[in-house]
Design goal:
- With about 350 residues, the protein is α/β, with parallel strands linked by helices.
- It folds into 2 domains: about 160 residues, ABC-type transport auxiliary lipoprotein component (Rossmann fold); about 170 residues, 3-Layer(aba) Sandwich (Rossmann fold).
- Strands 7, 8, 9, 10, 11, 12 and 13 form a 7-stranded mixed sheet that branches. Strands 1, 2, 3, 4, 5 and 6 form a 6-stranded mixed sheet that branches.
- α2 packs across α5 and α7 packs across α10.
- The longest helix is centred in the middle third of the chain and has 20 residues.
- The protein is globular.
- It starts with 8 loop residues before the first helix and ends with a helix.
């Protein structure tokens, strides 16, 4: 990686001190999480961010018995700021990591304030394969996973910088990723305002390990990036589910929904089932994602949204792989974005 010029003190003053949590592994296989984190820290520092040193972070996590590196709750976030001076936490989840050709990687990152409650200030994801942009004579092919990892993380850090500068653009969705079936209550049309929303873990009926947690991150991202929603940080939701001993066997029950609504002061709860979440094997095949959603409204406890979605990365592709989507991460993001847009429009 090329050396970048040092940032000035003025540049660094515009960036908060970050605590970079260890990478959460949702890939279902062993992966070089430390290398991913080290690359991420290097990129942050090149962009002018101050990063909390590892020893201080490790001491804090040990003292507060932090085990869930995929999120942060309010008490832990507040203590982090008071004890270390960190103003925000960067949380990274590794969804896919494949070293065989073509290499594959999918990641989600989010920036969460060190406050009670912690607020999501930025979230984005990326899914890449080494053969998705071959270009002329195959010059765009990437054969090594390390190079693909660096490219993916650089893409995420560019998104973070754009967001902090107020320049981030949210892409629209294609019609082919719209739900195949959908119900939307008139209640949502009558309540034109910003909603606090909780995204609960989806019940995983697929063969993909951690698919229920992965699809949650897609919905957290797509809902948070719309002006209509403030999504409750997943770490807060995780702690709440533990506190109430909620087990997501087959969707959320109304008594559990009532308790979560009351304690988290939320307007909406979104949950669902994930039936399939597949990435392509080798250079052939196509990713496939299949899920259903249901959403409840606090005021009436009624169901105000339900949908069924399923898509392949090859949907609508007929010639020379034009428009082909190469990862389940990208397919799921576009499907979740379509659902989020339909909920509010």
């Amino acid at each position: 990686m090329e050396n970048q010029p040092d940032k000035t003190d003025a540049d660094k003053a515009d960036h908060p001190l970050l605590a970079v949590f260890p990478v959460q592994n949702l890939s279902g296989i062993p992966a070089p999480l430390q290398e991913v984190r080290e690359t991420l820290i290097n990129l942050l520092q090149q962009q002018g961010f101050a990063v909390l040193d590892d020893k201080t972070l490790e001491t804090f996590m040990t003292a507060h018995r932090v085990r869930n590196v995929g999120g942060i709750d309010g008490g832990t976030a507040q203590a982090l700021k008071q004890e270390t001076g960190a103003e925000a936490t960067l949380i990274t989840s590794l969804e896919l990591y494949g070293e065989k050709y073509p290499p594959k990687i999918s990641l989600t990152c989010r920036l969460v304030t060190a406050s009670d409650p912690p607020l999501i200030r930025w979230i984005d994801n990326v899914g890449m394969t080494g053969d998705e942009s071959p270009g002329l004579l195959g010059l765009g092919l990437i054969g090594q996973v390390d190079a693909l990892r660096d490219k993916a993380l650089q893409t995420l850090m560019a998104s973070l910088q754009e967001s902090m500068a107020g320049e981030q653009e949210i892409p629209g969705t294609k019609n082919k990723f719209r739900p195949k079936l959908a119900f939307r209550s008139d209640t949502l049309a009558q309540e034109k305002r910003k909603y606090g929303i909780v995204v609960l873990p989806f019940f995983n009926l697929s063969d993909r390990k951690n698919a229920g947690e992965i699809i949650v991150l897609h919905f957290v991202k797509e809902l948070q990036n719309l002006p209509n929603f403030q999504v409750v940080e997943p770490g807060v939701v995780f702690k709440e589910l533990l506190r109430f001993r909620v087990i997501m066997d087959d969707g959320i029950s109304l008594p559990n929904a009532a308790a979560i609504f009351s304690d988290l002061n939320a307007d909406l709860i979104l949950s669902g089932k994930i039936l399939d979440y597949q990435d392509a094997l080798g250079p052939w095949g196509s990713p496939y994602v299949d899920f259903s959603t249901v959403m409840f409204f606090n005021n009436s406890r009624e169901m105000v949204w339900a949908s069924k979605s399923y898509n392949k990365g090859s949907d609508g592709v007929f010639f020379f792989d034009v428009g082909r989507v190469s990862t389940a991460n990208d397919v799921a993001s576009q499907m979740a974005r379509s659902v989020a847009e339909m909920i509010v429009n």
